[in-house]
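note to self: dont lose this again. the chain is below, predicted strucutre after it. 279 aa total, dont forget to put it in the shared folder this time
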Amino acid sequence: MSGPRSTYLDAAGFEMHITEWGERANPALVMWHGLARTGRDFDEAAAALSDSHFVLCPDTLGRGLSAWARNGAADYTFATYGEMAAAMLDHYGIDQLAWVGTSMGGLLGITLAAGSLRERITHLVINDVGPDIPADSAQRIADYVGNPPVFDTVVEYETWLRRTYAPFGAHSESFWRRMVDTSLRRTEAGKVTVHYDPAIVSLMGENNADLDVWGAYDALSAKTLLFRGEHSDVLPTGIADEMVQRGPRPALVTVKDCGHAPTFADQRQTATLREFVSS
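---
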């Protein structure tokens, strides 16, 4: 088991940060995070799977240690993210891969697996998101992502983060400590805030075509698995049931005592991932 290693590369004209795990000779696995998160969210799963896979956990443009957009909303699109993902794969010489995507990362995975990366993504894990996001849930996300708080201390920030991401469910203190350490940045005034560009919220705008992926979903040919948090408001049971009956007809894994979204930090979830991406 090898990692983590922090790497920076030019991807479609932007500096992209990637956390690498495992050996390059192993089968490739890309784990792509949610809207306002970073690639470090997958540390537990990436560490566990690095004995059998070369795991890449990128920070999306505008998040974590990757560059921010030059043109605001015009760059914060699946078209740009897809170009960056392809550049990353080309950099490593990866022809085929498994993709695990949480929330936004799942929608991006659907889009790419049915489009520009159709011949490269062989396995797709869609984590707690569907082609039809309820309007009230989208608004909830937009409200907190687009209006990031600013705190005097990290302790205050941690209280907010634990409350905001309580739907992740019960986790260890080490999990929450990493979440805090990898999710904050200092402002020019020395205050504490979130580690992303607030302009990323443009993805959640009304009638955004990036969120309309039923057509792409129905066109998927990759082997597909669907995860859902038992209490998720982003992937209602009705949409999950429809997904099971359409397109790639994935098996559905429901994670108990969890909302939006499962983190794969649990050994049982990781074991399910391992079995699927190795099949």
